[in-house]
Design a protein that fits this description.
Chain lengths: 464, 464
């Protein structure tokens, strides 16, 4: 509150002070502002749970009939915005370490009758319809705070390890890796090609190609921004707009690449467990029991590294020994299904793993061809309960090999600048991509990408 | 480099060790990798300036004719990628505190004859044509590293002050604040409306409206992401794609808003001066002399706060006293031109200032109407040498007033969710927007937005 207005203390600040050993009652009287989560009362006393968004925790406000507006206060509904002046009273015997005994409760913003949140538990599907209000629920209060903290963790990890953050463009003249269907950007539907930019313009599906030149100048770089896929998928794991992290490193081969993938995932998990203990306890209890144990298992040991060829042999052996897959015709050269990946990470390795050196035919054109002429230096990171969470590769740094592959793939036109990196002081380099929203799903145990994004965009759905 | 390959030490690491007082020669022999900036030689000795991108500084590699590939090495061109093994030799009497005497120089990646960077100084206009290569020049090496560090500064400032980072959507169903021309997103030009999403979809011009609901749940939030304007402007300050920072605070009036604007700008400037001294010294010397002094002046004192009405009086007085503006008809109600803003901040205040409480007719519909019925609680931050760098306002929190204004502006349809925030536990709240690229221009003194962005997108220009 400004010069004319009283400054409130946040609930987070009160808990910080408590943690640092301060006597909170010395702060009396206190003044807080927030939103009513619940309000129950009898004839002479009432209890309001207030959350101010500064942390996951609420604070209990106790008010009595000596309050001038006691009768009104008993009718303050879930969602109402209030300010409370009062005395902190320590309650060491209770679940909450302290509460506020109100000397004044001021209604800052009432709720109309059509307020869409109820006191009772609401389904995630219902809440998905009210994206502007769900941040006021426990689940989304926790989820979006973890999202914010996870974004900071990503920046801290990469910047403290010498990576330069590059804002690769959202609007692009090329279809990037040909990774999927693209959205077209226009101002005039009558002539979408010769339009604002004078050339076809698409929304990016990946920042990788654009960030590679920066790796060949700064050594280590990363992107972290929105990417888009116009695929008409309707699954819990697909959104048409999502955030990607794409690190790229000069002088790094596939082994280095895997080292950094593993370190970044472990750092992120550690960071969230350390900085969001209340939120993670909530997810572990109410959303996906076992999540914290799952994450601690990821931290516990080095990720196993296994070649695709070795993986195929193990899967063939499993089929021979009677294991049933939906798709049981395991052959070298096939694209593994999720059930196969999960069998390897869950049943064989029993932990996170990298599957490496895939057949070149099933991987992208920019991946480094191995000496065997059949495989490429790619690595997918697989984790139990999920399957793939990161994909990376060493990049093809041989001009002639890459040129031939690009011509074969038909994407050599317009990407000369990308190819030229291989003749203008190129070197061994590698990188990977992490879907940020999927990483958040994995860490919190939240099962639908529509819940991890503030305003999810999916096929046929564009609300707000 | 991976398991099979030797690990290089970065130039940044060497300077860090030096700073911490370590005897660098104890690291001998060292192994570095990077790109040739310059290479000059005589019959028996050569000197290569190497930059590895880990920092702004280069390292001088000295090589002699005892090197097996001495003759070849004398021909390694600007831009070639090399590895060097050798001994660090301290050179306290030289400009650079140490150099490397090479025992081996390995060519990792040669440069073809069409390499577009030259040893001599190149114009910014020329470099704009080769966005993939300009990061290897001094100017852009410095600029993009400052960009990366500034992004981290923004995150650190807001997160350490309890703001939750919210990824507002890029694709939106509404035209946001009606702030400008929008791009349309389609997959099928034949039917751009009933397309992928079943409704008209645009690229966002501002995350503000989408982030306000989150402020009313978390108290303090911020966005930091790409935004788009399809305006056919061709000025050094306009790009069609740029990054915006948009903080929003519940329980905050315009005075609080200005407090946070000022604190965030000062924090950012301090952070860059502290973390990027080499880069800032370069800008101060070669790009915009006086930049560091300008920034220190911003840090030196509180920003002055002046009302629009007061500003108009001062400008009228100035005209009366003979000051010549291009546009000299100063009247209350007018939209100030850049020359007027700069006169106030440069000639009158002689420092950063806020101009507040503008006529409601010239400001956006969502700004809080003041008690006078004529002005709104808006504040623009003006700085010498630039004019406006931030715009903010307290938001209209009265349902009826906002509804009437939205109906008048014709944007009430589709924004019911925004209006509803005012009847579902609303409160006093405020926010502001910083154009990240323009902030970078201001801090570095770089005069064209096309240079601050890795791949600038402007009207008629979409390369890469």
């Amino acid at each position: 509150m400004g010069a004319m207005q009283e400054k409130a203390i946040t609930i987070q600040k009160l808990f910080d002070l408590l943690k640092s050993g301060e006597d909170l009652t010395k702060k009396n009287p206190v003044f807080i502002e927030g939103w009513v989560r619940t309000n129950r009362s009898s004839k002479s006393i009432g209890f309001i749970e207030v959350n101010d968004g500064s942390c996951f925790k609420c604070i209990q406000v106790v008010y009595e009939d000596k309050l001038a507006n006691f009768a009104d206060a008993t009718h303050y509904l879930t969602g109402a915005c209030i300010a409370v002046r009062g005395e902190i009273v320590m309650t060491p015997e209770m679940k909450q370490p302290f509460e506020i005994h109100a000397s004044e409760i001021i209604l800052l913003g009432d709720v109309a009758e059509d307020y869409p949140l109820q006191k009772k538990r609401m389904s995630l599907e219902y809440l998905r319809e009210i994206a502007t209000m769900r941040p006021r629920t426990n689940t989304f209060n926790a989820l979006y705070r973890v999202r914010s903290t996870l974004a900071l963790a990503i920046h801290e990890f990469f910047q403290s390890n010498g990576f330069v953050y590059v804002h690769t463009p959202e609007i692009t003249a090329n279809d990037a890796e040909g990774a999927g269907q693209t959205f077209t950007v226009i101002t005039d539907a009558k002539d979408p090609i010769k339009d604002f930019y004078g050339t076809k313009s698409s929304l990016t599906v990946s920042g990788q190609l654009h960030v590679e030149p920066f790796a060949l100048a700064f050594g280590k770089v990363y992107t972290f921004g929105p990417t888009f896929r116009a695929e008409k998928s309707n699954t819990p794991r697909h959104a048409s707009e999502f955030w990607m992290i794409e690190p790229e490193m000069a002088f790094a081969d596939l082994q280095d690449d895997m080292d950094v993938m593993e370190a970044s995932i472990k750092f992120s998990i550690n960071y969230i467990l350390e900085h969001c203990p209340d939120e993670m306890a909530f997810f572990d209890k109410f959303i996906a029991p076992g999540t914290i144990e799952k994450l601690n298992a990821v931290l516990a040991k080095p990720f196993v590294r296994m070649t695709y060829t070795e993986g195929i042999k193990i899967l063939q052996e499993a089929v021979k020994n009677g294991h049933k897959f939906d798709y049981s015709k395991i052959e070298w050269g096939m694209d593994l299904q999720s059930e196969h990946e999960r069998y390897l990470t869950e049943e064989v390795v029993k932990g996170p793993m990298f599957l490496t050196d895939y057949p070149k035919e099933i991987k992208a054109f920019y991946m480094k061809e191995n000496a065997d002429g059949k495989t490429v230096a790619a690595a997918d990171c697989l984790v139990p309960g999920e399957g793939e969470i990161i994909g990376g590769s060493q990049r093809e740094d041989n001009y002639d090999v890459l040129k031939a592959k690009m011509e074969k793939a038909g994407n050599d036109k317009g990407l000369e600048w990308y190819l030229n990196l291989r003749k203008w002081g190129g070197c061994v380099h590698s990188g990977f991509g992490i879907g940020f929203d999927r990483l958040l799903m994995y860490i919190t145990g939240v099962a639908n990408i529509r819940d991890t994004e503030p305003y999810p965009r999916t096929f046929g759905n564009l609300k707000y």
